[in-house]
Amino acid sequence: MSGEEILVCAVQLGDNFCLYFAGLECDAFCKEKILHRVLRNVNSQLLVVRPDLNVAAFEDVTDQEMKSGNGMHFNIHCYKTTTPSAGMPVAFSVQVEDKSYYMCCEKECGKMIVRFREGEVPKEIPGESNVIFFKKMFTSCSSKAFKFEYSLEQGMFLAFEEEGCLRKLILKKLSREDEVDETTKISF
Length: 188
Hints:
Layout: E1 9-13, E2 19-22, E3 29-37, E4 46-50, E5 55-59, H1 63-68, E6 74-80, E7 88-96, E8 99-108, E9 111-118, E10 124-125, E11 133-137, E12 145-150, E13 156-163, E14 166-173, E15 186-187
Antiparallel strand pairs: 1-2, 3-6, 3-10, 4-5, 5-14, 6-7, 7-8, 7-11, 8-9, 11-12, 12-15, 13-14
């Protein structure tokens, strides 16, 4: 609890004797803007979502494949927040053929997994959500590179992990927030 005082003015007494105030911000995430970007890893590979194979991985992509853009052109949904120190809250969605998919994290066999589910990202998120990540600068000298921390588990960041010939999108635990781990570096 903070010792800070906030002056509020009651506006209306509603049904069931609920008191309404003006000028207060809610703690919900409210969509502010949408950026359209491709996401690249440290090797300049593009993140490609393949829902039919239930995989998202960083791949070398030809110019022809990039023009089709299938599963590569992301919408980054930026939300307003009342706690900007955590980073910019964002959610990711992507179009594959005629369907829209959003990124979320789910626990499976005791491990957090990145998934893409069919559907739309909500305009407002009333509280905690498994679709929100906090966008943070990767390093202070790199303005186009970021890392994305999962909102429900501090220290867990989007990253890639080599699995055979794939560089799969995963959540990775970092021991310190200021740790520089190239697998968590994502550029627009």
